[in-house]
Amino acid sequence: MTTPQRITNDRLNAFCNDTEAYLSGSPTGPLAGLAFAAKDILDVAGHVTGGGNPDWKATHPPSERTAWVVQTLVDAGATMVGKTHTDELTRGIFGENVHYGTPVNASAPDRVPGGSSSGSASAVSGGLVDFALGSDTGGSVRIPSSFCGLYGLRPTHNRIPLNGILIQAPSYDTIGWFARDIELFARIGDVLLQHSNRTEMRPQRLILAQDAFELADPATVEALQPHVAAVTALIGNVQNERISHTSLADWAQRQLVLQGREAWASVDEWIDEVNPRFAFNVAERYTMGRSFTDEDVEEAQEVRTQIRTRVGELLGDDAFICLPTAVGPAPLRGGTQQERAALQVRNSRLTTIAGNSGSPQINLPLAQVPLPDGSSAPIGLSLIGPRGSDEALISLAQELAQASS
Amino acid sequence: MTTPQRITNDRLNAFCNDTEAYLSGSPTGPLAGLAFAAKDILDVAGHVTGGGNPDWKATHPPSERTAWVVQTLVDAGATMVGKTHTDELTRGIFGENVHYGTPVNASAPDRVPGGSSSGSASAVSGGLVDFALGSDTGGSVRIPSSFCGLYGLRPTHNRIPLNGILIQAPSYDTIGWFARDIELFARIGDVLLQHSNRTEMRPQRLILAQDAFELADPATVEALQPHVAAVTALIGNVQNERISHTSLADWAQRQLVLQGREAWASVDEWIDEVNPRFAFNVAERYTMGRSFTDEDVEEAQEVRTQIRTRVGELLGDDAFICLPTAVGPAPLRGGTQQERAALQVRNSRLTTIAGNSGSPQINLPLAQVPLPDGSSAPIGLSLIGPRGSDEALISLAQELAQASS
After folding, report:
1. Which residues face A378 on adjacent strands?
2. Interchain pair A280, B286: CB under 8 A
């Protein structure tokens, strides 16, 4: 078995070309011979974590330790062949980094890859690596999975240790991964999830999230329909529910407050000291996060508690929620900020269910949305399970793939 | 007489090194043989105006025409030897540009030069040119004049045509200039002010702005005291007045609203299209400008009308207002953003008097503030005159220089 090499012909602009970070995998282990990429918010000892912002990179020392998740994969045999681009400090869901460019979405080359784990999704979509690590605070694994047509998991909050990562908002941050193939995807899960609490379950009920489907583009709902039917057939029982008693827009707004304030607290001293360069839309997010009042935060915390209760009651210990991962396919590259902001708001109403509840969510890369020009672009179907049911989500994805092959 | 050459050994980082803009002065004319620099918000035909922001520069075409003020000086014989650095899109009063660095204040090399006309003030302070053009919306000529120990004028609003400049906030924008020597300074005024309405006057009263002096550092007030006495002796009658019936803080806050909204309107479409990189504190200003409501703007407009009435009544047609140009000397290079923001707020309470009233204000580089380490740094005394009294301000500065020599 040969050890994978560093990527030298990155035709996708997926990789950071200003770091030599490379970690050869252990010669034995369940992942031996596999090549993976790590989002450049994950520390590698001896290298500066760039975080998608050149001023962050210039003002931080090399990491002393390697992130738990990276080291665990290397110990299991996988070779880390490079670091990948991210939206600045993980603030964004489209993957358009003004400093480093937009990685190519190999599944829809005229469209954005999604973000913030943009380079990881790009590298996997284009076959440059076998799998890749990302992080998901507000959708940063799920959205690029959907846009690039990949399997992607936002794990249960706190299941995978966050040691050695560039923190955005601790009460929302998670580490996830991408792969093209569900069997390989499951092997990564076996390694990363074995160290922590697992909830054994086999779903008996499928909850179709009516309010989530209503928010998606009609063409997206139509494209997902046969796959919803296939999941329904596997699980057996299906029920239609509105997930939010108020609105998913309200839930998303509460996350905007809590995540925004935490994100500001993570960087405010650094910003005060460095006055870093940001894309306007990134700086805008930080100023918004700073602007929320303590009262806004307290109210949002109360609502988050209600959300956790509500989602917990819906899921029980035997159900999955089914919803579109995104409201539509990846937008074309080069849109205006108003277009991006509006689309981000719409998508946040879907991603906030797992975000605020802390539940795991898997993206199933099953569908293609037909486009006006006759082509098509990927769209994902999502399943959300009870906290700790990450393996059950992956198992169902495997069953589904087997059933359709 | 030899024609001045382009600056090739810019040891001060005053000049933009990414433009070849150079305009040889007319061989005859009152300014023949003089070298000047133009802030890089002034258009020169065939060259892109950079505005202190690389994304602005990258997304704008070369200018078709040369700014009126530059062409007028060239026609009068002066040679424009280069373009100078500015705070991004003129948003700032300290001269610390994260993209291009901080020009050196030759009069206090460990301190900032002031901004936004930072490179122009630096070039004049270090003797690289005879004089330089800047712009002043919220203090961008006056503050660097004071910090670098230069004569500097914010002219009467709309006296010098703004054709061919990068607009920040049209109802506050002015073009001014810097020189080390008042006689040369006056010669520039003869050229730039001849084309528009002049108010003939000789001040009979000096109004000491009590509320402005109260805002300044005690050491600054003390350093200015002998020069206040000298001006008083020249004019004869002196009276103490509080300029604002409410507070100068309130006046500055109204300018923040009006200037902020106008500044946002000047760039919002470009920002939407380009998502440009800004220093955090610059993006912050734009998001703040955008956040003001129509009601905020209406209230501020009403107050501005009252300010104009109040300042007009104080000045009549025979008085100058005397005040510190800045609350203190230039701060040391490399401060935190919180320090900068607090100092900007304090200084804005002084600069807003001429800003909101549209009156001309001249900085007299007369004093040095002693510093704890035994050195000293420049601080300026300012005179504000009735609208159109620009020449009278310059004349008084000349008299004062003659009286003290």
Report:
1. A368
2. yes
Residues of chain B positioned with their CB less than 8 A from the CB of A275: 96, 98, 279-281, 337
| Range 89-108 of A in CB contact (< 8 A) with B | 96, 98-99
Phi, psi of B82 (to 5 degrees): 170, 170
Q: How many CB atoms lie within 10 A of CB B185?
A: 22
Alpha-carbon span B148 to B130, nearest angstrom? 15
| Phi, psi (rounded to 5 degrees) for A290 | -70, -30
A residues 150..209 contacting B (CB < 8 A): none
Minimal Cα–Cα distance from B78 to chain A, Å?
37
Show residues of chain A in contact with B278, CB under 8 Å: 277-278, 280, 283
Mean local confidence (pLDDT), A138-163: 97
B131, B132, B192, B186: which is closest to B156 by C-alpha?
A: B192
pTM given for the model? 0.94
Asked whether the predicted pLDDT for residue A238 surpasses 90, the reply is yes
Looking at residue A159, its amino acid is R
Q: Determine contact, residues B355/B307, Cβ cutoff 8 Å.
A: no
Token duo for residue A104: 């190519």
Question: Residues of B with catalytic annotation?
Answer: 39, 116, 140
Reported as a single tens digit per residue, the pLDDT across B155-195 is: 999 999 999 999 999 999 999 999 999 999 999 999 999 86
* Residues A55, B98: C-beta atoms closer than 8 Å: yes
CATH superfamily of B1-198+245-313+328-405: Amidase signature (AS) domain (3.90.1300.10)
Q: Name the percent of chain A lying above pLDDT 70.
A: 99
Active site residues of A: 39, 116, 140
Q: Torsions phi, psi of A289, nearest 5?
A: -60, -40
**Which chain A residues are Cβ-neighbours of B277 within 8 angstroms?**
98-99, 277-280
Percent of chain B residues topping a pLDDT of 90: 95
Whole-angstrom distance, CA of residue A399 vs CA of residue B6:
73
Nearest residue on chain B to A278, judged by CA atoms?
B277
pLDDT per residue as tens digits for the range B272-293: 999 999 999 999 999 999 999 9
CATH 3.40.50.720 fits A1-405, yes or no: no
This model of the complex carries an ipTM of 0.91
In the chain, the amino acid numbered A352 is T
* Integer Rg of chain A from CA: 19
> Pick from B55, B284, B338: which is nearest to A283 by CB?
B284
Rounded alpha-carbon distances, angstroms, from residue B176 to B29, B168, B252? 20, 15, 21
